[in-house]
Structures are given as structure tokens and as C-alpha cells.
Design brief:
14% of the residues lie in helices and 36% in strands. With 339 residues, it is mainly beta. The strands form two sheets. The chain has an eight-stranded antiparallel beta barrel. The protein has a two-stranded antiparallel ribbon with strand order 2-5. Strand 8 and strand 9 form a beta hairpin.
């Protein structure tokens, strides 16, 4: 019985020892608690552990006049121990900032600043070579189709001077509509044949832009208007009295008004779509046949060229659609104010 009591007392003592150890103050890292660094007991110090009440903020906060824990600030003084850019400069000197802020602030600023994108294809002081093919749009009796060539020089990025010419000889075609009308009404409609056309022009580009097509491909374009003066060589086609009448080509002054769209494939090659109206005064075949006889020569007046043309002139509009390519020379250039 006595042995059982002794065993219970020993077990209780073993359980109580760890609980008591938890209440002991933490030992100092270099000197024992309650002693100085030299191993002697601290004078005037209470050997009892100090109780700390965590519910009171005053015990945890530093007293007035004392400094709390030092926290290194971000971007501290270069060269400090583990602070700021000092360590970076030690590891990699090339990564250190090398900009002199005072010198950078005192530098001269550019006055001209642009907030828009630079033009994809400059035209300033460039030559444009524009071969094209023209198709008649407003004449239902005869077609005046033919190739042409335009040459332009851009004085500014939006203004150009140039020349263009068209060749119609051998390519005029009498329409089936005119033939059927002549047979049905037994009356021939006066028609005209063109030989060539040449003009001096001024071109103005009022707008340009870009659009997306074929997925992510970006097309750049510009819109232009054109005007000029020149000459056109025409002659009537003998329809009323082809047995006696035969006409020759005669040049006449004409004017030109038009506009078009240019779509760039790159900075020097583009497709051109244009519509131009060539305006002139033309002479038409006389729809009447003079059946009298010339008393002086004894020949029919129907063979007299003075009776072949209609009195007066006819105001004529030759509206022509043109499709071609533009090649700009030189192929490359440099911006006056690069990016």
C-alpha cells in the first residue's frame, strides 16, 4: 500500500515539472539570467522573474523617448547594409542609374512635337509613274477604250503637277445597241471616234488613311482630286452616208475633272482607281443628205465635205474609268523628323 502511494507521488512530480518549466523566463543568449556578462550577480536586481501582462498595451509598446525596432525603408541610402540600390551597384555596376537628373532637366527640348502617326508613304518630292487602262462609262453607242500613262511630280506631300495621255486609235468599238437602233429606225445616230488625248494636270490629295483586310493585313490609302487642260483628237464616224463621207481626225481643246482612290501595297507601289470626265466641244455628222447638184462642178452636193458636218458644235462629256498601278520614285526616303 505504501509502495502504491509513493508511485503516485512520483508520477505527480513528473507531470508538474514541465508545467513549472514553462513559467520560467528565457535565458539570456550570452549570460545567465540575473548575472552580468562577467558571471557575477547583477547588483540591485530582483532575482524573481518579471510578470508581463499582454492585455496592457503599455507593457509591449516602447516607452516614451525610446525608439522601436528599426525597419529598413525601401529605396534607402545607397551603400547601406542591405538597403536601397547600394548592394545592386556592388553586384552589377552596369545596373546602377547613370542619368544626371539636373543635366537631363536642363537639356533643350524639341519645339515641334507630333501626336499623330507618321504617313505610311510620303509623296513629297517623289515622281509617280501611273500606267492604266481606260473604259468608257457614258456612251452607249460607241466605246472609247484604251491604255494611258500619267506622270506626276509632288511639289508637296499633297500637291502635284503632271501630264497624262490616252491612246484610242484602233480600239473604238461601235456598240450592238447602235447597230440595232439604226436598223429598226432606219436612222443612224451620229457617233465619234477618238484617236488620242493629252492633258496637263494638277493633283491634290485631301485625305489619307488605312483599313484592315484579309485578316490582320493593314492597307493604307489616299483620296485625290485632279483637274487639267489639254487636247483631244476626234472625228465623226460616217453612219448616215458612208458611201460619200469620209472624215479626218481634228484636235480640239478639252478640260479634265476627276478623282480617285490609291491603295498602297507597300511604300512605293499602289493600285489606282480613278474616274475622269474629259469635256470638249465636238463636231458631229450631218443627219441629212444634200441631194442637190452643184451647178459649178456638176457633181452632187452629197460629195461636198462642207455638207457632211452638222451646223454648230456639240458639248461632249467623255466619262472614263481608269484602273492601273502607281510606282513612286525613289523607292525610299527619310523623314525630316524621324521617330
Amino acid at each position: 500500500m505504501n509502495q502504491a502511494r509513493m508511485g503516485l507521488l512520483v508520477a505527480a512530480a513528473l507531470v508538474a515539472m514541465p508545467v513549472t518549466a514553462l513559467a520560467q523566463p528565457k535565458a539570456a543568449p550570452k549570460a545567465q539570467a540575473g548575472k552580468k556578462g562577467d558571471g557575477k550577480p547583477a547588483a540591485g536586481k530582483d532575482d524573481k522573474p518579471k510578470e508581463v501582462n499582454l492585455d496592457e498595451p503599455g507593457d509591449a509598446a516602447p516607452k516614451e523617448g525610446t525608439e522601436g525596432p528599426q525597419v529598413p525603408e525601401a529605396g534607402g541610402t545607397p551603400g547601406g547594409e542591405g538597403e536601397g540600390l547600394g548592394d545592386i551597384c556592388k553586384i552589377d555596376p552596369s545596373a546602377c542609374p547613370t542619368i544626371d537628373m539636373e543635366k537631363a532637366a536642363a537639356r533643350e527640348m524639341k519645339i515641334d512635337m507630333y501626336a499623330v502617326q507618321q504617313i505610311y508613304a510620303l509623296r513629297y518630292h517623289r515622281f509617280e509613274i501611273n500606267p492604266y487602262f481606260g473604259l468608257t462609262m457614258n456612251d452607249q453607242f460607241v466605246g472609247h477604250n484604251g491604255p494611258g500613262l500619267a506622270l506626276n511630280f509632288y511639289i508637296t506631300n499633297t500637291l502635284a503637277v503632271g501630264v497624262n495621255g490616252n491612246i484610242y486609235a484602233g480600239l473604238n468599238s461601235n456598240s450592238a445597241f447602235n447597230l440595232q437602233t439604226s436598223r429598226a429606225g432606219r436612222v443612224g445616230e451620229p457617233i465619234t471616234e477618238y484617236q488620242w488625248n493629252a492633258n496637263a494636270n494638277i493633283t491634290y490629295v485631301p485625305a489619307y488613311g488605312k483599313f484592315a483586310g484579309f485578316g490582320d493585313f493593314i492597307f493604307h490609302y489616299d483620296i485625290f482630286v485632279i483637274g487639267g487642260v489639254g487636247a483631244i483628237s476626234t472625228r465623226p464616224i460616217a453612219v448616215v452616208d458612208p458611201d460619200n463621207r469620209s472624215f479626218s481626225f481634228v484636235p480640239k481643246p478639252n478640260g479634265r475633272l476627276g478623282g480617285g482612290l490609291r491603295i498602297f501595297f507597300n511604300r512605293w507601289l499602289s493600285a489606282v482607281f480613278e474616274v475622269s470626265d474629259y469635256i470638249f466641244f465636238d463636231k458631229l455628222e450631218n443627219p441629212k443628205i444634200d441631194t442637190t447638184i452643184n451647178t459649178m462642178t456638176g457633181k452632187p452636193n452629197a460629195q461636198n465635205p462642207n455638207t457632211w458636218l452638222k451646223d454648230g458644235v456639240s458639248f461632249t462629256n467623255n466619262v472614263q474609268a481608269q484602273v492601273g498601278l502607281s510606282i513612286f520614285l525613289p523607292f525610299s526616303w527619310e523623314y525630316r523628323l524621324p521617330k
